[in-house]
């Protein structure tokens, strides 16, 4: 595979700790200090109870595939055509929340719903991104 | 329970030709649709005192209702631009028009959307230029999720896995809407489609193929609303809005509820309850078909089929003309044109008036129009009734 590509996330002040943790190889999700709700994606308040006293929980990085798609068209043009085909996944993390990510590895093309996956943090440009690979491969 | 139930009716419809309209700008297309709808209702341009529109997705504008008002040559007492998503935008326009007329802001309101998304994109642009990028800049685009096909592909794969459905279920939707488009002179797709054609079309984002995806179109559609007594055509041609149900649940695909919990079921339940009706009372099903999977999910959420049995229902012929619930007799977004679902509404009105010619649904008294914007992020169900 050619070099991976990713557009910069341009974090806000509230989401920067998530992306900074990725740069250290850690997956952190926000957790409400009042009601305990663990959620994705980071916000300045808890979407369940509205409280703003939030902390961060380190995730295991293990999950299962809720759905996936092999992408054959570069919707953003030029630069992405070198990535084709690539695989987008919805991952249900072991701790509960679901996140959208990209599945990488030679065995991504045969992934099925329910397959076990685990997070990896490839460096792309000046950041590391929370992509996934099939657990059997890791 | 949301209610509409007023004496405000859809008194006129207007459609431009669809497909390629080189040399037409978005405001010119919208103006042509409004003028056609006013003519259809028997109103003069000077009667128009309410105007509700959506600005073009390919070339977004601000304050597009005033752009259109000036271009038309009117000075409305109520004007606004709404952007809710999918056909729910059109439903929201109708809702705004009803409220504006009922509360005395205006008497004759036009609801319109149209643009030149096919021939008018800026050079080098791919897809629609969404100013807000659908909220996905941080949590979707870094992972390669761009545009609307990939999220619907994720929904479709989940549907196939959840119910053991196959590509034949998706194909059935593409095939029936194509059969219907062949009966519509104002449709982009005029060639018959076979299951082999469907399977030979290229993969865009698995499991979705090219023929699972709706068209990119130039064109416009408009509706004119007024009180029954104010319409020159009187009670005979006005179509009533019996109910509109809506539900917004999320925006990004990661936060999409699983299929049985999508907002379409809640929107449909509200609409049915408000109208005191169920699927058995509907004769025309104009369901938002941006992708084939959208129809299967909507059919099941709206009670036309049991969960996982949408494909079997379509294959049974029930959604063909002559069947129990003809689906998108005009050909829909998949085979007529994608004008944001406005033509789902104009077609419903045409069917209920009995003016649909060779694609007329026999005995059409009530039509259900469904809409969804984003990735079933906002859902709507609207029931229209013949007077
Ligand atoms: Zn909370």
TrEMBL record, chain A:
It comes from the Bacteria. Pfam families: OB_ChsH2_C, zf-ChsH2. Residues 56-121 form the ChsH2 C-terminal OB-fold domain. Residues 19-54 form the ChsH2 rubredoxin-like zinc ribbon domain. This is Zn-ribbon domain-containing OB-fold protein. It comes from Azospirillum oryzae. The lineage of its organism: Bacteria, Pseudomonadati, Pseudomonadota, Alphaproteobacteria, Rhodospirillales.
From TrEMBL, chain B:
It comes from Azospirillum oryzae. Keywords: Transferase. SUPFAM superfamilies: Thiolase-like. Residues 245-385 form the Thiolase C-terminal domain. One of its GO terms (molecular function) is acetyl-CoA C-acyltransferase activity. This is Acetyl-CoA acetyltransferase. The keyword Transferase applies. The keyword Metal-binding does not apply. Coiled coil: none annotated.
